[in-house]
């Protein structure tokens, strides 16, 4: 795994660049990302290009053999361009303009902006496409950041109508698919269709779902336009930096066009901003949730063709969460090693030096704005030597996968049918339980080949693709479906025939308020679940039941169905039984310890502030790093396999 940093030469006097580059090398940095917000410095007014500074910055980095990741600067169109073509700006749900003055101020449906994006990409590629120091190109920056995938502009409306024409061919098909007879919503022409905003009460869910699909497709096609240009002019790799918690476009589809997908990992910001409980936010405020970064590593690894990395790693406090604590000493190192253990080929720190001006002046860097090395910087300086000691970081081929699906997220956003229903959180809780059983996990889409896994867990999958059950039936793979699976068609209707109807009947479902729980009896032991249950009926009820006698769990040969949102204990015991049957080895990890296998090594991570004795987990271990007493926020790495303790 190579180390890198995000550098903004345009923020610093030229006389600092040389020393910055030589210091980077001393810290073990090998690659430097530049340029993603630099349009106003490259082209201060139309066709007036200023290349000297950028040529010089590239030369300076190259002098120290630092390789460059160059970015297209389209996340920040400059003011002169917005003044020239004001329609570039996106509109929010109430049709207000999202103005110039920060970033990502563009609408993906603006044809004029797309032309500008192609123009500046071509110009950059003409100049630097063959530059041997540039080993990779990043398209734009974090599609979707600041809620920017959706725009309610008239251009979006027009493009949406065209998209619908291609999908439905004629308006009759669309009316049928959307069920527009309901509330007299029928259309006579595609041109009558508006965007689903500012309606009196909720818009038709099928209408919103198609708009979400369309908006996702707009991101993919915008990105593809840049990619086509980059590929024509350069042999360098192409990347895009995705983000944690971002689900507004389909990352699996984006990943198909990209060589090395990367993501931006801010464990403390995500925890404080996310849906964890107040207790958890305090418990892990300086470490981040033990599964958050790992979840995204496992997701993005499978969004690409296997090549992935971390483009922006949090090096200290960030500026954008409600509260922004400093990481515990050791965490920057731990997060970096966790990326390595998951198979990252790159880990880059955002940013090299804290900015003394602008929106992010309270965001830490590897150096502070007065150029003193930060705690994060000190930890980075230790990592290179450590990485060199590791044998191989080749990925471990796991036999357990979790299915995470973007359209499912959109569907449940549209009609959650219960305040506590949160698809991402549900998937995350399943993931945590799997990981606490010591499993290494792949996160996959419903289109992924499932046949290489023994167990695929789909925490909820409202639309079950036709061939998924067939595939499970014809392979050795068992699927565990969670609640609401199979409950919708792709047009957001209730299916006339439930996909599991040969085996059991779906009667109705209910959502439960926060704090309430549902009692379950499993093999004469009491458990509980929360938030949701599907009430189902079947002939042969097993011994996992709600206390009113309805089945909570169905076993079939190639799939199981769990009819509720389980507590950790319930899911854990279900998974222990299931994995035993499938001959998958599990262990019981302490709450704050996580492990991850590579092909030849096991990594253990301690997310607590206490030393934990992990000797139970390891037999005859040859430690490459650390030992069986895992200190607070420390990592141990060993070569031998785990001992089975469950
Ligand atoms: C990312 C973004 C960076 C910077 C960073 C701050 O979302 O890509 O440009 O803003 O957050 O944490």
Structure description:
The protein is an alpha/beta fold. The protein contains 18 helices and 25 strands. It has 4 domains: 2-150 and 220-389, TIM Barrel, CATH 3.20.20.80; 158-206, no CATH class; 400-581, Rossmann fold (3-Layer(aba) Sandwich), CATH 3.40.50; 593-644, Golgi alpha-mannosidase II (Immunoglobulin-like), CATH 2.60.40. The strands form 5 sheets. It has an 8-stranded parallel β-barrel with strand order 1-2-3-4-5-6-7-8, surrounded by 4 helices. Strands 10-9-11-12-18-17 form a 6-stranded mixed beta sheet. Strands 13, 14, 15, 16 and 19 form a 5-stranded antiparallel beta sheet that branches. The radius of gyration is 26 Å and the shape is globular. The protein starts with a strand and ends in an 8-residue tail after the last strand. The site of beta-D-galactopyranose has 12 residues, from loops.
| Text of the CATH class of the largest domain | Alpha Beta
Structurally, the number of domains stands at 4
Helix content: 25-40%
CATH architecture of the largest domain: Alpha-Beta Barrel
What is the CATH T-level topology of the largest domain? Answer: TIM Barrel
Q: Radius of gyration, rounded?
A: 26 Å
Structural class: alpha/beta
CATH homologous superfamily grouping of the largest domain: Glycosidases
Specify the number of helices.
18
Largest sheet, strands/sense/barrel: 8 strands, parallel, barrel
Strand arrangement within the widest β-sheet reads: 1-2-3-4-5-6-7-8
Query: Which strand-content bin applies to the residues?
Result: 15-25%
Small-molecule components bound: beta-D-galactopyranose
């Amino acid at each position: 795994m190579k180390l890198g940093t995000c550098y903004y030469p345009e923020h610093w006097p030229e006389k600092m660049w040389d020393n910055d580059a030589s210091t980077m090398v001393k810290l073990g940095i090998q690659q430097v990302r530049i340029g993603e917000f630099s349009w106003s410095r490259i082209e201060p007014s139309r066709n007036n290009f200023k290349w000297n500074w950028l040529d010089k910055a590239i030369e300076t980095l190259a002098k120290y053999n630092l390789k460059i990741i160059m970015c297209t600067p389209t996340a920040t169109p400059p003011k002169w361009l917005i003044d020239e073509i004001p329609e570039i700006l996106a509109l929010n749900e109430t049709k207000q303009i999202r103005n110039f003055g920060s970033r990502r101020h563009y609408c993906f449906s603006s044809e004029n902006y797309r032309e500008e994006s192609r123009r500046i990409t071509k110009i950059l590629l003409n100049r630097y496409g063959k530059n041997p120091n540039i080993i990779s190109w990043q398209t734009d920056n974090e599609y979707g950041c600041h809620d920017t995938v959706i725009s309610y502009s008239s251009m979006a409306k027009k493009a949406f109508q065209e998209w619908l024409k291609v999908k439905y061919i004629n308006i009759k098909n669309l009316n049928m698919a959307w069920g527009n007879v309901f509330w007299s919503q029928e259309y006579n022409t595609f041109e009558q269709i508006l965007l689903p905003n500012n309606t009196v009460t909720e818009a038709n869910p099928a209408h919103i779902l198609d708009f979400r699909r369309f908006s996702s497709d707009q991101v993919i096609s915008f990105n593809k336009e840049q990619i086509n240009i980059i590929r024509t002019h350069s042999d360098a790799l192409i990347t895009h930096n995705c983000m944690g918690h971002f689900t507004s476009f389909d990352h699996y589809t984006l990943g198909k066009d990209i060589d090395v997908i990367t993501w931006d990992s801010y464990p403390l910001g995500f925890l404080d901003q996310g849906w964890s409980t107040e207790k958890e936010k305090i418990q892990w405020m300086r470490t981040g949730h033990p599964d958050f970064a790992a979840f995204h590593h496992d997701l993005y690894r499978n969004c690409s063709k296997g090549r992935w990395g971390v483009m922006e790693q949090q090096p200290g406090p960030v500026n954008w969460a409600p509260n922004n604590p400093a990481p515990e000493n050791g965490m920057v190192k731990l997060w970096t090693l966790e990326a390595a253990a998951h198979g990252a080929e790159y880990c880059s720190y955002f940013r090299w030096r804290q900015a003394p001006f602008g929106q992010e002046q309270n965001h830490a860097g590897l150096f502070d704005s007065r150029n003193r090395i930060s705690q994060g910087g000190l930890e980075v300086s230790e990592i290179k030597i450590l990485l060199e000691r590791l044998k191989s970081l080749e990925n471990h081929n796991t036999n357990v996968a979790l299915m995470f699906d973007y359209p499912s997220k959109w569907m449940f956003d549209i009609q959650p049918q219960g305040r506590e229903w949160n698809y991402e959180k549900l998937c995350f809780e399943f993931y945590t339980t799997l990981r606490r059983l010591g499993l290494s996990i792949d996160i996959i889409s419903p289109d992924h080949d499932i046949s290489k896994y023994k167990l695929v867990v789909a925490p909820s999958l409202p639309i079950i693709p036709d061939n998924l059950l067939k595939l499970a039936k014809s392979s050795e793979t068992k699927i565990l479906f969670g609640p609401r699976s199979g409950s919708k068609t792709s047009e957001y209707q209730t299916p006339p025939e439930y996909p599991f109807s040969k085996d059991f009947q779906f009667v109705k479902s209910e959502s439960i308020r926060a704090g309430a729980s549902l009692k379950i009896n499993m093999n004469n032991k009491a458990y509980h679940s929360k938030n949701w249950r599907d009430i189902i009926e079947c002939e042969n009820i097993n011994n996992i039941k709600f206390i009113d006698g309805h089945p909570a769990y169905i076993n079939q040969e190639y799939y199981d169905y769990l009819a509720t949102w389980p507590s950790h204990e319930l899911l854990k015991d279900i998974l222990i039984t299931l994995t035993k049957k499938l001959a998958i080895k599990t262990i019981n990890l302490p709450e704050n310890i996580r492990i991850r296998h590579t092909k030849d090594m096991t990594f253990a991570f301690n997310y607590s502030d206490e030393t934990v004795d992990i000797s139970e987990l390891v037999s005859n271990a040859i430690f490459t790093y650390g030992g069986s007493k895992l200190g607070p926020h420390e990592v141990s790495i060993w070569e031998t396999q785990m001992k089975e303790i469950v």
